[in-house]
Amino acid sequence: MTRVALLGATGTIGRATAAALIEAGHDVVAMVRRQPAEPIPGVTMRRADPADPVSLARDGFANEAFDAVVSCMASRTGLPRDAWAIDHKAHSHVLAAARKAGAAHFVLLSAICVQKPRLAFQRAKLAFETELVASGLRYSIVRPTAFFKSLSGQIERVRGGKPFLLFGDGTLTACKPISNRDLAAYLVGCLTDPDRWNKVLSIGGPGPAITPREQGEALFALTGVEAKFRSVPPGFLAGIASALGLAARVVPPLATKAELARIGHYYATESMLVLDPATGRYDAALTPETGTDTLLDHYRAVLCGEAAADERGDHAVF
pTM of the prediction? Predict the structure, then answer.
């Protein structure tokens, strides 16, 4: 049994990771800013603010020993202030507390999009990755591809007879989607698999890679609704971001909307696959796979009421 401090346990990936840790026989203490509406079976819950080093040390780690830290914590919006506060600074506080608690291993949930950092949250994540690697602790930095929830926002549109929205022709990007359960199992496996120690690990779900057009075609086939697509020019969001950025010089609050438009444009034009350094192109063949759950399995579960249709929250694009 390993005593694990878990951060980000109230999110969808965090809850799945908590369950996987318990199933693997670990002793789990989840440090959360707010008590969840439903307890996580088998997990000790402690209210502590990771953005406050005093609260984290006193209320979270509580001067106790831990063997490892697993962090699924991430900024909710990706906006600069939030990103640097959570993706970087709060993680720095967790790292310091982990070292004091005697933890030997730090498993970090990052993101595959940091390979081509153009946004504040990507730079913040990379800053902490660098800090973790230099810390001397054993580390496993996991960079997953797209989550099922981020590709499920148009299910109700399709079911309601509306067109599936695409950027360009819908083949500009691709990913190997991964489920909460499969990603959680992979994160937990990092604690015991030496092949995942002191490495940056890009990971996808079971292939093949799927484009947005293929996602739409699959939804139309599953629902039996006539296939209808509507194309949005990829430059549309870039234009909005540029215009709002200029306007923000006069009306500062518009800077937030400009950054959200930049985030939307990034995901509309960049694949969530491994970037081949030799070619500068995304490569599905170089993107490792794990698990058994497929995006089509998830779509079927949502359509028959076995899974939630939309858990994207602040990460919604459509």
Answer: 0.93
